[in-house]
Amino acid sequence: MTEQNNRSQWDLSRFVETLTYFEVIPLINCIQRLLQGRAKDNNIRPDGDKKVGTILVAGATGGVGKRVVRRLIDRGYRVRALVRDSQRAKQMLPDKVELCEGDITIPETLTPALMSEVSAIVCCTGVRVQPVEGDTPDRAKYYQGIKFYMPEVVDSPEIVDYQGIKNLVEIAAKYLPKSDEKIIFDFANANDDLKNIWGAVDDVVMGGVSQSGIQLVDNTALFAGNVSTANSGGFASVRTRNFDIPLDLSGYEGIELRVKGDGKRYKFFIRTETQWDGVAYSYSFDTVANTWITVRVPFADLIPVFRAKTLPNSEKINASKVRSFQLMLSKFEYDGALNPNFTPGGFALQVGSIAAYGNYRPQFIAISSAGVTRPGRPGLNLEAEPPAVRLNDQLGGILTWKLRGEDVIRASGIPYTIIRPCALTEEPGGKALIFEQGDNIRGKVSREDIAELCLQALAQPKACNVTFEVKEAENNNGSQNWETLFSSLQAAAVVKR
Questions:
Q1: How many whole angstroms separate alpha carbon 390 and alpha carbon 394?
Q2: Nearest CA to 437 among 372, 375, 380?
Q3: Confidence class for position 477, pLDDT limits 50, 70, 90
Q4: pTM of the model
Q5: Closest Cα to residue 309, out of 276, 277, 286?
Q6: Rounded to an integer, what is the distance from CA 427 to the centroid of its chain?
Q7: Alpha-carbon Rg of the chain, whole angstroms?
Q8: Of 161, 270, 278, 418, which is the most exposed, with the fewest CB atoms less than 10 Å away?
């Protein structure tokens, strides 16, 4: 007698176990929890949903930096502040901020722990350029009092605005995640939550006898088992329980799977409803035997189905309400057609990660200065320029080194936004703004508005890889619409890291 015939008797206990695990029959599930003394798991969500990125703010106690920190906290971000003196910083920053002592001019203090779970950096560091009362033409008093925005110490523009930026960029490039993806399941770093989220849904629910499961093996999730066509069966799958809080992936293009298969064709499903047996959105993909591949599942290419029957009149997927995922090996493709790469028997699909892709945002927001390209520019009327331009050499090449720091950021391959404010003021924010490129404008702008600009840049795809000057508008002839302002900018060519 064949193995298939030996296993052809339907298993009622597996059927009940499947429905219980996925809470299809709430009464049975409640009774089971009472008998086992279990509380209902109210924290069913993917790993990536627990790891909301932290924003690292360098220069967090400076005029712009402390405003950036407060705004981030007020809007629910997790914030880590890089400071030289945590006791001093405690007196200046909100209690919810995580303080990390370090110094961008000392690379040894920029540790991997500093970058743990950091998704973006806002860099507000710099040296002060305000004139010192009673200073001499050679700026002797200025050099005695030149300060880093973070500490009360002496530093030069070269050390802070160039070498310090270079140090920060180097560790950022090493540890920042890819800007265009959101890790949802990272099985290399998975924990026991896997068994609380993923479970088998085999053809036992239809009277079949196929069996499968999922377990952690070699830093991957191994979906494996045996598919049988006995009893009119022919599919095995693993599925997540419904996420308590649906995933909002509306800003992304699709799902990216990192898999190593056996040459068979599998299906990936997304559900946006909580029903057990409702509409699913399906995508079929082929694997290469014993080879790791990346499979991209565009939301636009998902097929609405109900039990492998296509629903041509169904709406497109609502990616803002993702409730569950499913992986399947099935005898059938769609509408009765057969899977061209299906054979009954054993199978194995390793999954390294599941991520959303395509949501490109800046990851390094840097505050520079208008005028950085003007020192030495032919034909420039110095009398009409601000003090930093006129006194660039006396100020230790302050603008020259800021430009060098900008160049490091642009060459790093990290998606960036470089903001060049005109003269900073302590005036209230909320003014209409003007963005320009070419480094020609003069004017002033509130530190409040620059802080808000930093936050807006974090969420704007059109803020990626742009360098621009900003000032407040006179006679309100600028704009307060962020999308309009960023849309007016020309992005630089993308550098891959």
A1: 9
A2: 372
A3: confident
A4: 0.67
A5: 277
A6: 33
A7: 29
A8: 278
Q: Are 259 and 351 in contact (CB under 8 A)?
A: yes
Which of 370, 405, 465 has the alpha carbon at shortest distance from 159? 405
3-state secondary structure the chain: CCHHHHCCCCCHHHHHHHHHHCCCCHHHHHHHHHHHCCCCCCCCCCHHHHCCCEEEEECCCCCCHHHHHHHHHHCCCEEEEEECCHHHHHCCCCCCCEEEECCCCCHHHCCHHHHCCEEEEEECCCECCCCCCCCCCCCHHHHHHCCECCCCCCCCHHHHHHHHHHHHHHHHHHHCCCCCEEEEEEHHHCCCHHHHHEEECCHHHHCCCCEEEEEEECCEEEEEEEECCHHHCCEEEEEECCCCCCECCCCCCEEEEEEEECCCEEEEEEECCCCCCCCEEEEEEECCECCEEEEEEEHHHCEEEECCEECCCCCCCCCCCECEEEEEEECECCCCCECCCCCCEEEEEEEEEEEEECCCCCCEEEECCCCCCCCCCCCCCHHHCCHHHHCCCCCCCHHHHHHHHHHHHHCCCCCEEEEEECEEECCCCCCCEEEECCCCCCCEEEHHHHHHHHHHHHCCHHHCCEEEEEEECHHHCCECCHHHHHHCCCCCCCCCC
List pLDDT tens digits, range 80-123.
999 999 999 999 999 999 999 999 999 999 999 999 989 999 99
Tokens for 158? Answer: 């070269």
Task: Scan for tokens 């002060």, then name that residue.
Answer: 128
* C-alpha–C-alpha distance, residues 437 and 443, integer Å: 14
Which amino acid, 488?
S
Residues 240 and 248: beta-carbon distance below 8 Å: no
